[in-house]
């Protein structure tokens, strides 16, 4: 077999894999807001179940990743987005829930980052 | 200023380039088109299947109507409890109300329409009216 034939064979193989598992990649739409206590991320992940979802914070980088389980005859969707979090966020204390295709991630701020009220004493 | 930001987006250019080469080459590696609101209609022969991508809807306010061959999907996106003093970093998700009208290719049997809302996807199965289905004609032989 010549090199060219081998390359052709490789390509055919690749093509088959692509056709068998069509995968559409999306950047999920997000809402992010910050209150005095926490940072909240809402991400649209339609068609994703908890098992498909992969969420992690490593070295201050939040990764949202999800890939739909294969369903016969339907193009799968994959979602991916990354954010860098401030050091003033306590990611370990974060909570996440998935409802109606929307992920809600709550990331509390560290104590030092929360606003503090300072009492003013009046001296008489 | 930059150091004060609680969150900022990572640049995923490299990943996107890799995906571009890994894929067929002419497809966009990541699709930034609005996913919310995408509607697919499939003709399954005796019924239509309509799938609408609508993450975060208020399930109680979903309103589906069928008249003849027209399907109306309406609803409202759930409003999350957001404190008034919140500081916004990103605001990309759909909000507010929506209404979509679809004209299907055949009359619908409105009594048998079924709908479900799961994982942010609204699926409606609309069986065609008996008058829209093909009839088999028996041929008499002498």
Oligomer: heterodimer
Question: Average pLDDT of chain A, to the nearest integer?
Answer: 84
Structural class of chain B: mainly beta
Main sheet makeup of chain A: 4 strands, mixed
Overall description:
The complex is a heterodimer of chains A (124) and B (142). Chain A has one helix at 3-20; strands at 23-26, 30-34, 38-44, 53-58, 61-67, 76-85, 95-99, 102-108. Chain A is mainly beta. In chain A, strand 5 (61-67) and strand 6 form a beta hairpin. In chain A, the strands form two sheets. A four-stranded mixed β-sheet of chain A has the order 1-6-5-4, with no helix packed on it. In chain A, strands 2-3-8-7 form a four-stranded antiparallel β-sheet, with no helix packed on it. Chain A is elongated and about 100 Å long. The N and C termini of chain A lie far apart (100 Å). Chain A has one domain: Immunoglobulin-like, CATH 2.60.40.790. Mean pLDDT of chain B is 84; it is low at 25-34. Chain B has a domain at 35-79 and 94-131: Sandwich (Immunoglobulin-like), CATH 2.60.40.790. Chain B has 142 residues and is mostly beta strands. In chain B, the strands form two sheets. Chain B has a four-stranded antiparallel β-sheet, with no helix packed on it. In chain B, strands 4-5-7 form a three-stranded antiparallel β-sheet, with no helix packed on it. In chain B, a hairpin with a 2-residue loop joins strand 8 and strand 9 (121-127). Helices cover 7% and strands 36% of the residues of chain B. Classes of the chains: A mainly beta (124), B mainly beta (142). Chains A and B meet through strand 1, strand 2, strand 3 and strand 6 of A and strand 1 and strand 6 of B. Strand 2 (30-34) of chain A pairs antiparallel with strand 6 of chain B, so a sheet runs across the interface.
């Amino acid at each position: 077999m010549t090199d060219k034939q081998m390359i052709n064979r490789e390509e055919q193989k690749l093509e088959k894999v692509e056709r068998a598992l069509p995968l559409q990649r999306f950047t999920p739409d997000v809402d992010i807001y910050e209150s005095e206590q926490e940072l909240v991320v809402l991400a649209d992940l339609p068609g994703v179940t908890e098992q498909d979802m992969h969420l992690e914070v490593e070295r201050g980088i939040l990764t949202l990743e999800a890939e739909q389980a294969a369903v016969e005859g339907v193009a799968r969707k994959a979602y991916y987005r990354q954010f860098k979090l401030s050091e003033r966020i306590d990611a370990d204390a974060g909570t996440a829930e998935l409802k109606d295709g929307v992920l809600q991630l709550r990331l509390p701020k560290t104590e030092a980052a929360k606003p503090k009220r300072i009492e003013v004493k009046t001296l008489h | 200023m930059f150091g004060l930001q609680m969150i900022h987006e990572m640049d995923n250019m490299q990943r996107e380039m890799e995906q571009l080469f890994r894929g067929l080459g002419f497809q966009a590696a990541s699709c930034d088109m609005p996913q919310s609101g995408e509607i697919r209609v499939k003709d399954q022969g005796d019924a239509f299947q309509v799938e609408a991508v609508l993450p975060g809807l208020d399930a109680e306010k979903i309103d589906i109507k069928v008249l003849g061959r027209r399907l109306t999907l309406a609803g409202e996106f759930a409003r999350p409890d957001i404190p008034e003093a919140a500081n916004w970093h990103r605001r990309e998700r759909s909000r507010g109300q929506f209404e979509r009208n679809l004209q299907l290719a055949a009359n619908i049997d409105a009594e048998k329409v079924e709908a479900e809302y799961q994982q942010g996807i609204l699926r409606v199965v609309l069986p065609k009216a008996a008058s829209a289905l093909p009839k088999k004609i028996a041929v008499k032989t002498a």
